[in-house]
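hi! just following up on the protien thing from before. the input was this:
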Amino acid sequence: MRRGEDAGQLGGRDRRAGWVALLVALLASAGATAGPADTPPAEQRESGFPPVLETCDTQTVIAEIMRTFSERERAYWSSSLEITGFDKISEFGNRTNGLSYIPRRYCRAEVLLNDGQRHRIIYNIGSQNGFIGAGPGIIWCVEGLDREHAFGPNCRAAGP
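and the predicted 3d structure came back as:
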């Protein structure tokens, strides 16, 4: 090859690399302008997300957790464990993922089981996350009884 051809090929590659770099920079800056702060709250984008959620100590929330816990223990673990009471109920997060996500309240408590043991429970209440989107959806995890580690160590995935 002649010397001029090498320089021409190299110059063409440099130009293409420059255009690619410019395109990447433009795409990156375009993505940076539309951040989560610019998006409206979930209840303004979609109907059906009321901004007001049940509180951590609402009796319907407590009853739902107690019912589903005993059902799960019987059906999957052939266990007769049941939650007999809740104690030290507290909220530790409300919409911590941001306003543009589904409204969700994060709670923790101590539960007393029918075997006399106490365990910590972490649960969250999501707006319109119930069966087929009707009512609040409650996701819960009892520390020490997450046998398949579905929520990671110490039920971390059930929290914010």
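The beta strands are 83-94, 104-113, 118-126, 137-142.
Residues 31-35 have pLDDT under 50 and may be disordered.
cheers
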